[in-house]
Model the fold of this input.
Amino acid sequence: MTAAPADTGAARIAAAFKAAPGCAALMPYLMGGFPDVEASVEVGLAYADAGADLIELGVPFSDPLADGPVIHAAATRALAAGATVNAVLDAGARIAERVPVVLMCYANPMLARGPERFAGELAVRGISGLIVPDLPLEESGEVLAACDRAGIALVPLVAPTSSDGRLGAIGATARGFVYTVSVTGTTGERAAVGSDLAGLLERVKSHSSVPVAAGFGISSGEQAAAAAAAGADGVIVGSRLVRAVTEAADGGENPAAAASEAVAELAAALVR
Done:
């Protein structure tokens, strides 16, 4: 794959991975619009201040099949509070002034607008990438073409169950990075990083020319460092951070401060 022009989302993502001060790039997940839109922007900026190299920004959706209970509950509350796709994209634009943003959006909201329009809306806001967890490789051609035209990196997902043949097909079209789902199942905090993660990452890397990030089940600094030691170029943490924001909001505390503390601990673990 040829190098991306310097002003594309793929180039911004590549630069963030390269410049990460830790042993892997840190990519915390943020639920857009939770606990409300303005608070989610403040949380995103707190992530950046605390050491995030990139941010995964979730669009709340009523049927988030890949998400565990913590993130699902946050999406439900964001929608109830009035979060819209436009509002989340505008929030992403503000966060993207500080750190590259990769949008995580289920297929229906994207397809309702059309891939061309949706990719253009991300580009005009300076959002670098797009993850669509329920978009299979076989149905991704139109979306990939629209993203390429707009300079948006369409980031694919792979799983522990992905065959070598499928990893090769996905790796051939990967933009930005490959999101490696480290465990089977949905997002959520787990007791430890799986012992087979190193083997999975080695398999994914053998089929990819872009960085490989690990997510799902990583919730502590120790686990983030373990994922990096296993070979991850990037570490994605979601449920633990959304839980911190939830507990702060419900307890009358500052969600951004709680998020900052949690991300700082993860960032420190990756630098040590």
Summary: The chain has twelve helices and nine strands. The radius of gyration is 17 Å. The chain has one domain: 9-271.
